[in-house]
Amino acid sequence: YSRVKLKNILMASTDKRISKMKAYKYADRLIDLAQKSYPAVSGDAIQVDEVRYYARQLIALTRKKEEVIKRMESIAQRLPEYILYCSFPGIGKQTAAQLMGELGDISRFDNANQLNAFVGIDIRRYQSGTYLGQDHINKRGNPIARKLLYFTVGNMIRQQHANSNHIVDYYYRLKEKRPHPKLNKVAMVACMNKTLKCLLSMIKHHKKYHYRYTDSIVPVKA
């Protein structure tokens, strides 16, 4: 493949919006690695056929995954809360459909604590006499929803310059808190908790994301 063709393949094969300059950088790196590599087996070896087989399987599975995601988005778009999810900075069409699929109709929850328990990020404390153990999340809920939320918060932080987002503000307040700044994982879980509170309030009150509105979340009545 030429440098230009590799660049085009890279830009078309990723969901991330990488620049042409970055795509060329990756293309140059691939070309350099290909030139430095040395085949361990001959071109007609069985291992070559095996690698080609798995490559075809991977391509087929990737295409199938894309088809399923498109169907998920199509179904999600028919539901009234879809537009509310998509209004949240850092939550795109695909993530909105995935969150809706894993969380279901979150208006069924009376409060954020119930939603946290469903996802599995409610706090578990161990105490015995005067001993108080370190807090941990329960992890008894939906593991896929937890991963999605973790990814979503990370995406919000990565895209912080695109839109104002109070979740990102909260993340940095926790990281810079004195005298005991929070570790990254602790801050991320706290932001996941706050994101769920915001989503629940938005769905309950049928309101799109607004920086000022969600910065002082309206309490959800039981």
Summarize the structure.
One of its GO terms (molecular function) is DNA binding. This protein is mainly α and 222 residues long. It contains 10 helices and 4 strands.
How does this structure look, described?
- A hairpin with a 2-residue loop joins strand 2 (127-128) and strand 3 (131-132).
- The strands form 2 sheets. A two-stranded antiparallel sheet has the order 1-4. A two-stranded antiparallel sheet has the order 2-3.
- It has 10 helices and 4 strands, in the order ααααααββββαααα.
- It has 3 domains: 1-39; 50-78; 80-215, no CATH class.
- It has helices spanning 3-12, 20-36, 46-76, 82-86, 93-103, 112-119, 143-158, 166-175, 184-205, 211-215, and strands at 123-124, 127-128, 131-132, 136-137.
- It is mainly alpha-helical and 222 residues long.
- The mean pLDDT is 86.
The overall number of domains is 3
> Would you tell me the overall average pLDDT?
86
Bin the strand percentage: under 5%
Total E-strand runs: 4
Give the strand order of the largest sheet, numbering strands 1, 2, ... along the chain: 1-4
Protein name: IS110 family transposase
Pfam families: Transposase_20
GO molecular function, one term: transposase activity
InterPro entries: Transpos_IS110, Transposase_20
Features:
elongated; IS110 family transposase; 3 domains; DNA binding; transposase activity; two-stranded antiparallel ribbon; mainly alpha; 222 residues; 61% helix
